[in-house]
Write a structure and sequence with these properties.
By secondary structure, this protein is of the alpha/beta class. It has helices spanning about 55-60, 75-80, 85-90, 135-145, 145-155, 235-240, 255-260, 270-280, 285-295, 310-315, 340; strands spanning about 10-15, 35-40, 45, 65-70, 100-105, 165-170, 190-195, 200-205, 215-220, 225-230, 250-255, 300-305, 325, 335. The structure holds zinc ion (ZN) (2 copies). One zinc ion binds near residues 76, 209 and 232.
C-alpha cells in the first residue's frame, strides 16, 4: 500500500508546447504547461517550469523553502517560461536562513542551428552577439530584467535577492561523448550523475530533440523508488539506457494525426512545422515501445500534445507496453514504487 510519505511525483502541468490548451471536448482539462515535482520526504525537486508552474506548485501544497533543486530538460520556452515566477514569487516562501537552490540546465549551445532547407528567403537570427545563452546566462538576464522590482524590495523592504538563493549551473556533458549541438547532438552514451544529496541521486543523458541541443532526460533514484523523466525527445536509445528498470517512466507523447491535421503541408511554413514535430517527438505507441525495452514498472505519458485530446488517444501506448499505462491529469499524485510493493 502506498502512503503519502513515499517518494512520489506530482504532475504540476502535463501539457506540451508553447500554447495554452483550452478544452472544447472535455470538462476535466485544460492542462497547464509541463512541470513535474518529485517529492521525497519533506523535500521536493522541480523538473521543468512550464506555464503556470508557480500557481500549480502552490495548489499542490509545495513550498519553495523545501525545494531541493530545479532541473531543466532543455531551453524551449514551454519548459522554462515560469522560472521567473518560481524565482521571484518563490522568494516570499522563504523565512530565516536562506537555502541554496541549484538550477541545472543546458549550457550555451555555442553554435546557431542550421537554417531550414525550406527557407525561401534569407532568415536572420536575433541577438547575434549572444544568440544561444545557456541557463546561467539566461537566469542572470531574467533577474536583470526585473532589477527595478528587485532593487525596490532589496533597498526599501530589506528583502533578500533571488541571486543569493538560486544558483544556476550549466550541466557539463562528459567530454568523451564528443557532443556538438549540430554535428553530434545525441551521441550514444552512458548516463552520468549531475546531482546527489541525502535524498536523491540524479543522473542525466542526452536525448534527441533537434534542433535544440543539448536536450536532457533525468532519472531520480531514491531509497523508496525511482523515476525517469524523458524531456522532449523522439524515441531515444540513450533514454532506454537511462530508464532501465526504473519504477516509473514519465515520457512525452504527441498525436501525429493531430500534427497532420494542423500542418497539412500547404505551405513551406506548415511543412517545416510538421518536420519539426516528426523528428523531435514520440507517438504514444513509440513511448510504449521505449517503456517495454527499458523494462520499467509503469509508464505515465505527459507533455501530451495536443493538450486537449481525449485520453484514449494516448492510451494507445498500452498496445506496445504490457505494464500499467497512466495518462495523468494535472496535480495527480503518483507513487514511485506502488507497483513493486503491491
Ligand atoms: Zn516541450
Ligand atoms: Zn521542446
Amino acid at each position: 500500500m502506498s502512503t503519502v510519505t513515499e517518494p512520489r511525483v506530482i504532475t504540476l502541468g502535463t501539457g506540451g508546447g508553447p500554447k495554452v490548451w483550452t478544452s472544447p471536448h472535455q470538462e476535466d482539462l485544460p492542462r497547464n504547461g509541463i512541470a513535474t515535482a518529485v517529492v521525497v520526504g519533506e523535500r521536493w525537486y522541480l523538473v521543468d517550469a512550464g506555464n503556470g508552474t508557480f500557481t500549480q506548485l502552490k495548489r499542490a501544497g509545495l513550498d519553495v523553502s523545501r525545494l531541493g533543486g530545479i532541473f531543466l530538460t532543455h531551453l524551449h520556452s514551454d519548459h522554462i517560461v515560469d522560472l521567473n515566477s518560481v524565482a521571484l514569487f518563490g522568494m516570499f516562501d522563504l523565512v530565516g536562513e536562506l537555502p541554496s537552490i541549484p538550477i541545472y540546465g543546458p549550457g550555451d549551445r555555442e553554435v546557431l542551428p542550421e537554417t531550414s532547407p525550406r527557407a525561401q528567403s534569407p532568415v536572420e537570427p536575433i541577438y547575434r552577439e549572444d544568440p544561444t545563452p545557456g541557463v546561467s546566462s539566461l537566469f542572470r538576464s531574467l533577474m536583470h530584467a526585473h532589477a527595478t522590482d528587485l532593487n525596490d524590495r532589496i533597498l526599501d523592504a530589506l528583502r533578500p535577492s533571488p541571486l543569493d538563493v538560486f544558483v544556476p549551473q550549466n550541466i557539463a556533458i562528459p567530454a568523451e561523448a564528443n557532443f556538438h549541438a549540430n554535428d553530434n547532438p545525441s551521441p550514444l552514451m552512458d548516463p552520468w550523475v549531475i546531482h546527489e544529496d541525502d535524498r536523491v541521486r540524479v543522473t542525466a543523458t542526452l536525448v534527441i530533440h533537434p534542433p535544440i541541443a543539448p536536450a536532457f532526460a533525468f532519472r531520480f533514484d531514491t531509497e523508496g523508488g525511482s523515476v525517469t523523466i524523458s524531456g522532449d525527445t523522439r524515441p531515444s536509445d540513450n533514454l532506454v539506457t537511462l530508464a532501465e528498470k526504473t519504477d516509473l517512466l514519465l515520457h512525452e507523447a504527441i498525436d501525429f494525426d493531430w500534427v497532420s491535421t494542423v500542418y497539412p503541408g500547404r505551405t513551406e511554413l506548415e511543412r517545416a512545422s510538421a518536420d519539426h514535430h516528426r523528428k523531435s517527438h514520440t507517438s504514444p505507441v513509440e513511448a510504449g515501445e521505449i517503456a517495454a525495452r527499458a523494462d520499467v514498472g509503469r509508464l505515465a505519458l505527459h507533455h501530451v500534445v495536443p493538450g486537449n485530446s481525449p485520453r484514449a488517444v494516448f492510451q494507445a501506448a498500452a498496445t506496445s507496453f504490457a505494464g500499467e499505462v497512466l495518462v495523468p491529469d494535472d496535480l495527480d499524485v503518483i507513487a514511485l514504487n506502488s507497483l513493486r510493493v503491491r
